[in-house]
User: Fold this.
Amino acid sequence: MFVERPVITGEAVQSRLRFQTFFRIAGISAAVVVTSLLVAGLIAYHRYSKRLDGRLLSGVLTDSADIYAGPLVLRKGETYSTDELKEELEAAGYTLTPSKKGATIVRTPATTRASGAAGEIALSFGAHNQIDRILVDGANRDEWVAGDPLIANLSGERAKRHLVTYNEIPKVLVQAVMAAEDKRFFRHGGLDFERILKAGYVDLRSGRKQQGASTLTMQLVRGLWLNPDKTWNRKLSETMMTVHLEHKWSKQEIFAAYSNQIFLGRDSAYSIHGFAEGARVYFGKDLAEITLPEAALLAGMVQRPSATNPRRWPERALQRRNRVLALMRSNGYISAGQYKDAANAPLGLHAGDPAQDQSWGAPWYTDLLHNEVGENATGEIHTTIDPRLQRAAGEALADGMREVDQALARIPANKGKHAQAALIALDPHSGEIRALVGGRNYSQSQLNHILAERPPGSVFKPFVYSTAINSALAGSGEILTEASLVDDTSSDVSWGGGLYQPRNFKGESFGILTLRDALAKSDNVAAVKVAETAGLRRVVAMARNSGLNDRIRPTPSVALGAYAVTPLEIAGAYTAFANGGMWVKPHLTSQGRMESHQAMDPRVAAVMLGMLQEVVRSGTAAGIRSRGFILPSAGKTGTSHDGWFAGFTTQLLCIVWVGFDDYSELNLEGAKSALPIWTLFMKKAANFTPYREATAFPDSHLLETATICTETGKLATEDCPRIRTALFIPGTVPQENCEGHSRKADEPSPIVHEESVTDGDRGATHPGGPGREQIESGRSPAEALEIPVPPKAKVSQAPPLNR
Assistant:
């Protein structure tokens, strides 16, 4: 059969050829485009992977600094509450579990054990929570050095976090985060394509971006290494780095890093980063202790931390928490009963105990440190803070201010007003700051009152009397001693073309006083007269040499502490009295060199130490003893607009300030405002070594002693009614006997020997007699130490200062 074939015209051939050429070119173009995209993708991946590798090599969160407290040392006989011990040991990296025998088992981290540390420590407690036994790997110990507890982790953007490992994250929190943010986290490779398609479909139908598709890994990459700009370049970087990170890290490592980095709102001046810090701030507990509803609340905050902050928006936070609980139920993580109980539970936020909040975390201390080391500090910073003292400081200030509030409430001018307070404690010999509380409640006010400039009042007077005692060494002017007399009868002082009129507290007048008694009674009129006699410029020079600021001026009011200083300055200045005249600069870290210089002659400091002990024994600070603090101590009260107390033992120096932020009158003396807080703190400190080991102040063999009549300042006789042992720079002992008292032959001796403030035998107390060292060696103590001895001068016999 003949079949007719279709005739193919030239036009048809040309058309077919054109189609074949088009598809060939399209195929080649597509191949080129695909190849180019693959090459570009590989190049981009290589570039971003190298960038990520470099950042991973330098470490995650390396732009932050770990702040550590001083070493935690546990000793037999010391008292710890269970919560305190748990918090401090966990901060040092240990875990605690109770044993069946009643002991607390402390397990050392594996990393620490690898370096040769003990594997297991057992602590047994007796009555009143005292440690009565310490077993280290089965061996009895009197003490155990646990290491340096972590206070905080700080970064340049003023963020706080507490780093945890994956094993330290409770399972319920892992489930809550997955339900809320990324339910297929452990199944995908960093990109959840099912979620991406679903999000694209939802966005297409709604006509706007309504649903996100970021995985936990993508959120981590964005938070750690990328800026928040919503650009295609940033999205490409995020995708490439996410894929690479999933190849470099395990899922557990990624989740732990995410848990440490995530932003959870703000706490006062700091950003809260990480679930562990969030648990501490919002619930006041360790991350391992959070409950199901608490875990759901933290996970729910991830999406919009500021808008769902439970402190500011509790209803929003509750709704979001319950939404996360519903997601956990639908994903099979919790049962219907668990969901119902958790959804009906209150938020359970930590109310915030000011004493606790400002004790362990030491926020004002941390602020001060942050300012000192700079915003870009990284690595480890080991501080001088003592966790036990920091806690004691917070508690003492909170308890003491309740007493102050009650006293202020009884003063009509102070009704409705709330005073602030600050406390700083340091080692007087090294200047290492052991505790610092800058206010009453850090969450309400971050103002650090340790740095607030306020008139110190009578806390400044010891520098006036130091200048007076130094007159024996100055080489000119009238020589003054602690036995010199001053008349506190009020008199006007000419100054600057006008009259300055010093007055005593409540208009009191004590008449003629020795300089020791004038300081003990904090006599204002006497202080001004002593300052004028010693020289106002010399007073200012003494203060500045002791670390006080250069804005102090040589005017009569300087004697009464009229020029503003900070509690931090006063803390440094008082180290000279506690440290043989050596000023030591207060400092925050154990790294670096101690700064110090000789602020005053050791002999002057020794006399002043005795005079400051008299303030505690019989003067304005005698309330220390009635409040139960019995360790040897010295100090000075101060009252200006505010209340002050500065005091110390051989082991610890502490300054307390109380006042109003608006600079108005406190109307409460330092003895009734600052001193009670100081006493509470020092009593708590006395429970711990080495502060409980404060001893009597050491004898100064640089001085001579003599028994004087307290009324005339002359050498005492058997007729003097009141006598005491006084301290003198060699060559300034009074040379005249008291002739102001007499009695009949048949009258009994009227002598009352006032309690000596000297501790131990500084030398013979025979009137005018040499000390034992002088008798045995034939030389005075000052000569033995090659210290120049001023010429003998009749000092106490001069008329009372009445200028």
